[in-house]
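DM from R.C. (forwarded with permission)

"hey, sorry to bug you on a friday — could you get me a structure for this? deadline for the figure draft is monday and I only need the backbone to look sensible"
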Amino acid sequence: MQEKIRCKWCNLKNPLYIKYHDEEWCQPNFDEHYLFEMLILESFQAGLSWECVLNKREDFRKAFDNFDIDKISKYNDKKIEELLKNEKIIRNKLKINAAINNSKIFKSIQKECGSFYNYLKTFTKEITVYEIDEVTSELSDTISKDLIKRGMKFVGSTIIYSYLQAIGVIYSHDKECFMYQEK
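My reply, with the result:
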């Protein structure tokens, strides 16, 4: 039986990566909890590979109270120290502080717009973007600038572009990939 052809970035030796590629990446998922989890995980990716973050995802879930936004927004110095000592996650104080800060802003956006997805729709107009081999776009630039203006950290255009791919706003499977589809 011939192996399925996947996107060139997918490490075929890593079952987690294959599962993420096949079942999650570029698949529309606008559940608020998922949107928050992916925003936090993507912000930890800054300067690293997604595979590094993905391999630690379950440990992140445990360390960050299953991405409970209400708990994370109330993290204190004691919790930050606990996270900095956790060798199973990415122990970057700036990114940990950003996760706490970003959770508060995420909540304020939810309150303002009714949901974070409603906020995203003001930019996306509920249209899926089909493009390959890009790392930023006018859409990611615009959302990034707005989030930064609101005070979020580690949400540059490249991170937001990856985020939009992760949640299924941008569909980017390679043409050779068995998951590839056009508009």
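R.C.: lifesaver. The CA atoms of residues 98 and 153 lie 5 Å apart.
me: no worries. Strands lie at 129-130, 170-171.
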